[in-house]
Write a structure and sequence with these properties.
The complex is a heterodimer. Chain A is α/β, with parallel strands linked by helices. Chain A contains 6 helices and 13 strands. In chain A, helix 2 links the parallel strand 4 and strand 5. The chains are: A alpha/beta, B alpha/beta. The complex binds flavin-adenine dinucleotide and adenosine monophosphate (AMP). Flavin-adenine dinucleotide sits at the interface of chains B and A.
Chain lengths: 260, 321
């Protein structure tokens, strides 16, 4: 069985977000990056299948040089092979263009299962997974909270509101966009990290994959006019002062509410 | 601009409120004569009639056993058929578990622009402009659609349901559904809660900022105890296995409306906010003064929760003695 896991490297969740002077995106220089949280769960889910049965896990990511780090981490966790689309002409791509690149990789690899995260922690689009499924003509499920293989079928539980679940049966090949909390993610062991250095990491361009016309700023169907700090509405009254002052201010308020 | 198509959503036999919100957005950006709607499901005609007069305009019904439950494949096919039938170039869905599941697929099928989870939409110089949050609510983005067809999902609750009256018509469309590669099996209701936060008068919740599992019994629970309240959590805390799911507040956890909600080390992503914004009074403790939680809180402290929370616990205890 072959499993393709799509993962994105995103700014670290605790990174300072400064907006570029032209308002087009955030400043990416001098901040830390990490694998998108949703994608770590997607990778773990794929590795769990590999723990159970014979499977090759291929990880794919589109991004600049720094992305190698994310792919090496994934290889260190147990993925077998990595594909890195590192190509300046891809910059400025929207979700659909990213999906077209990943679908091109999917066509080359012909996986039985494709995993993505439900959404990326940076743009929060939650678009790429179902788009890749559409382009590969596969059934899919999003917000997946459990996945179990049963022969040529996969039973997935999708998360609904309030903690309810929807159980669906998908024929293979299929795509799963994974929700956080589906499993407990392993760490890359030292042994894994050493072994990862010898694992194949292929670098590809949009042209290699035959999608150069479909990607980049020129092809984007959505344009970011501006990103900005949300305008402050009324907001909270902020208590200032020493910790003791603040604690007393809070207690005074709680008393006033009649709760003490 | 061509017609605009609202994909309404059925929930427990009625059209969801968020679909009436889509009607508000559609009426905002299009002429009433351009508004079309789709109602999918079994025996939905009565609801479709109501919707057509409350912002939905010309409604098409796809009534078929294949779509009695949500299925990405069947919904995709039905929606694509109605887009063609109605000549729609703007398609609006709600960002709900079925909306976010099918909408990106539609966009890919149509090679259209796709924008998800928007809280506002406007038409400026014949261009559609969308506002949405990025970075889990820390920043906002204004985006422009640059394609002939645009598919967008709108955040439930972002606007009020449409209040006006529209001239409506209802017709139905037969769709011959293809053989499906997927199948709905069942819906499982949320597991019964050992901890029922919906009854608590005071809730003290901890988020990812609490940092590690031991800190919940050491720092968060003592404040909840001192106040005679219950402890809650944000999703990453539950995902990490620090606390069971029954403690989770938010769209995929519990919706709570206590008299007092204290959010400690929680940034204030929309999925958390929808679970607690109905609280009577909200206190936020966060070291990041720009955290979105302060927008919804009544009273805030910008500081380290490991200093503020224990000090508050002590102050509560001495106020009581
Ligand atoms: C479909 C879907 C459903 C979801 N459902 C839910 C849900 O039901 N409930 C939910 O909560 N989330 C839900 N989420 C996740 C949500 O998007 C956010 O990721 C999550 O709410 C963030 O949790 P957080 O605020 O604890 O963590 P973060 O966003 O990481 O925030 C941590 C905060 O802690 C602060 N902090 C750190 N250290 C300290 C310190 N020492 N003192 C004070 N402050 C500190 C930081 O400044 C930061 O603001 C859902 C997401 C999706 C896509
Ligand atoms: N640049 C990328 N490289 C590889 N996978 C990606 C990329 N962008 C998005 N994805 C995948 O698509 C999912 C959803 O991302 P998004 O639609 O951007 O929120 C992510 O969780 C990844 O699995």
């Amino acid at each position: 069985m072959k499993i393709l896991v799509c993962l994105k490297q995103v700014p670290h969740q605790d990174a300072r977000l400064d907006i570029k002077s032209d308002g087009s995106w955030i400043q990416e220089e001098s901040i830390k990056f990490e694998i998108n949280s949703y994608d770590t769960y997607a990778l773990e889910e794929a590795l769990r299948i590999k723990d159970e049965k014979e499977a090759e896990v291929v990880v794919a990511s589109i991004g600049p040089d720094r992305t190698t780090q994310a792919l090496r981490t994934a290889l260190g966790m147990g993925a077998d092979r990595a594909v890195h689309v590192n190509d300046e002409s891809v910059e400025g791509s929207d979700a659909l263009a990213i999906a077209k690149i990943l679908a091109a990789i999917g066509k080359e690899e012909s996986p039985d299962l494709v995993f993505t995260g439900l959404m990326a922690d940076d743009g929060n689009f939650a678009s790429v997974g179902p788009m890749v499924a559409e382009l590969l003509e596969m059934p899919h499920a999003t917000a997946v909270m459990s996945a179990s293989l049963e022969g040529e079928k996969l039973i997935a539980e999708r998360e609904l509101e309030g903690g309810a679940l929807e159980v669906v049966e998908l024929q293979l090949p299929c795509l799963l966009a994974v929700q956080t909390g589906i499993n407990q993610v392993r760490y890359a062991s030292l042994k894994g990290i050493m072994a990862a250095k010898k694992k194949p990491l292929d670098t590809r361009s949009a042209a290699d994959l035959g999608v150069q016309e479909l990607v980049g700023t020129g092809a984007a169907k959505i344009k970011v006019q501006e990103i900005y700090v949300p305008p402050k509405t009324q907001g909270a009254e902020i208590l200032e002062g020493s910790t003791t002052d603040v604690a007393e201010g809070l207690v005074a308020k709680i008393k006033e509410l009649g709760l003490l | 601009m061509g017609n605009i198509l609202i994909v309404a959503e059925m929930q427990n036999g009625s059209i969801r409120e968020s679909s009436y919100e889509l009607a508000s957005f559609a009426q905002k950006i299009a002429d009433p004569s351009q508004v079309r709607s789709l109602v999918i499901g079994e025996s939905v005609t009565e609801e479709a009639n109501a919707f057509s007069t409350k912002g939905g305009g010309e409604v098409t019904v796809v009534d078929n056993a294949a779509v009695s439950n949500y299925s990405a494949e069947a919904y995709r096919q039905a929606i694509l058929a109605v887009i063609q039938e109605t000549n729609a170039s703007t398609i609006l869905l709600s960002n709900t578990p079925s909306g976010w599941d099918v909408a990106p697929r539609l966009a890919a099928a149509l090679d259209a622009a796709f924008i998800s989870d928007c809280f506002d939409i406007d038409r400026i110089d014949e261009k559609l402009v969308f506002l949405r949050r990025v970075f889990n609510g820390k920043l906002d983005a204004r985006l422009e659609a640059a394609a002939d067809i645009v598919v967008a999902t709108m955040q439930p609750g972002a606007t009020a349901p449409y209040e006006g009256t529209t001239n409506g018509t209802v017709s139905s469309l037969e769709v011959s559904f293809n053989e499906q590669k997927s199948r709905f099996l069942e819906t499982k209701v949320a597991e019964s809660k050992g901890v029922d936060l919906s009854k608590a008068e005071i809730i003290v919740s901890g988020g990812r900022g609490v940092g590690d599992p031991e800190k919940f019994p050491e720092t968060i629970q003592p404040l909840a105890d001192a106040l005679g309240g219950a402890m809650g959590a944000s999703r990453p805390v539950v995902d990490a296995g620090w606390l069971p799911h029954e403690y989770q507040v938010g769209s995929s956890g519990q919706i709570v409306t206590p008299k007092l909600y204290v959010a400690c080390g929680i940034s204030g992503a929309i999925q958390h906010l929808v679970g607690m914004k109905g609280s009577n009074f909200i206190i936020a403790i966060n070291k990041d003064g720009d955290a979105p939680i302060f927008e919804i809180a009544d009273l805030g402290v910008v500081g380290d929760l490991f200093e503020v929370v224990p000090a508050l616990t002590d102050a509560v205890k001495s106020a009581k003695s």
